[in-house]
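TA notes, week 10

Several of you asked for a full example with nothing omitted. So below is the full record: structure tokens for the whole chain, then the designed sequence directly under it. When grading your own attempts, check the secondary structure regions first.
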């Protein structure tokens, strides 16, 4: 039986090399990146979005450089909105491209590129009006999203009229036409861009997997109503502003297989999980977001990490990682976020992920392991 005793977590130590040359102040260092306004997720921004950078020695930052992924010619440098010792706020410039970010202080010392990459969305709205009322331009970000993931389904809309228009944005479940979420926007000025994101919850609970769509209903001042509800190009096609919501993402992000009998739940000596075989170094992501409950090394499990998953009461354990997990005890992680790499540490026959699922209240805290294979197969097919 693969059993692991829970031990007190150890904090990870991170080394930072110094910058070359003489400088009158410490070199700036970036440790976090998060989009704060007009975003569809922490790492998803657009021109005009405000992004918050965290780190150290940031009080003297004079420029923020958006490092385009295609090469140096994509770099765009702008002055920050504000800078303090541990935080910089910057507005995304129009010409910025997706990629890492770096900062430069008053001595001309540039930080290392951020570990996280900022994804710049290009939003182009389309006219989607049905009805005699105001014209409505809409755009959708996120065609396939995961509950508690790094990106939310996000609608951008603009109302075209000669006066403010009362707007209501709805999220509709296409399987039965039920309205599962509503956002009363009040009176919206004409030509003002508005953004609405949905967190994937219905009455506080996780919405079931399926296809959903945003609908905008606009009531003009003369009583005429316009909507985007009937704007699909074909009656048998999903609406253009529709998206698929999934509760989990398959954790092994590369070619893989499930092994033989001994690799399944209950096989061998009371195997408590499911083995998924893949090359060492294959990325592993969180099947469901949540909080890291445990990050340790154990002689049988090797490097492992346990995540208390959001909104489900279930714990997921990931074992035999190549190295220590890239997330730390107490960290909040998102569905689909990188947590480590497939390895063969501990008592492992070949490179593989040993994955366990435990019922509430959790992993070795009163819960019980159950066979995760049906869930893994379903996630593998859908994500």
């Amino acid at each position: 039986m693969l059993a692991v005793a829970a031990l007190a977590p150890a904090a990870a130590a991170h080394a930072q090399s110094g910058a070359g040359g003489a400088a009158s102040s410490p070199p700036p260092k970036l440790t976090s990146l998060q989009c704060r306004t007009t975003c569809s997720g922490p790492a998803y921004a657009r021109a005009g979005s405000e992004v918050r950078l965290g780190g150290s020695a940031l009080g003297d930052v004079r420029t923020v450089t958006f490092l385009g992924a295609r090469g140096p010619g994509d770099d765009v440098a702008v002055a920050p909105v504000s800078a303090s010792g541990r935080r910089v706020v910057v507005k995304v410039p129009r010409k910025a491209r997706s990629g890492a970010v770096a900062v430069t202080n008053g001595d001309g010392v540039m930080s290392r590129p951020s570990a996280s990459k900022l994804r710049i969305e290009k939003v182009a709205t389309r006219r989607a009006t049905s009805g005699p009322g105001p014209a409505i331009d809409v755009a959708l970000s996120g065609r396939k999203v995961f509950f508690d993931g790094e990106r939310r389904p996000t609608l951008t809309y603009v109302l075209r009229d000669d006066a403010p228009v009362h707007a209501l944005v709805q999220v509709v479940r296409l399987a039965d036409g039920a309205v599962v979420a509503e956002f009363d926007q009040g009176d919206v000025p004409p030509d003002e861009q508005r953004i609405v994101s949905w967190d994937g919850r219905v009455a506080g609970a996780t919405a079931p997997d399926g296809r959903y769509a945003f609908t905008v209903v606009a009531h003009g001042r003369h009583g005429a109503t316009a909507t985007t509800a009937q704007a699909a190009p074909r009656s048998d096609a999903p609406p253009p502003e529709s998206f698929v919501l999934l509760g989990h993402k398959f954790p092994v992000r590369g070619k893989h297989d499930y092994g033989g009998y001994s690799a399944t739940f209950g096989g061998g000596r009371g195997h408590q999980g499911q083995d998924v075989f893949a090359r060492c170094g294959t990325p592993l992501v969180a099947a469901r977001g949540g909080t890291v409950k445990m990050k340790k090394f154990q002689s049988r499990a090797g490097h492992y990490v346990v995540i208390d998953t959001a909104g489900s009461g279930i714990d997921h354990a990931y074992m035999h990682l190549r190295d220590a997990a890239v997330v730390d005890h107490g960290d909040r992680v998102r569905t689909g976020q990188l947590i480590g790499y497939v390895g063969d540490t501990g008592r492992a026959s070949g490179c593989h992920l040993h994955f366990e699922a435990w019922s509430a209240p959790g992993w070795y805290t009163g819960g019980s392991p159950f066979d995760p294979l049906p869930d893994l197969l379903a996630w593998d097919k859908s994500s």
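Helices lie at 267-270, 373-382. Use that as a sanity check on your answer.
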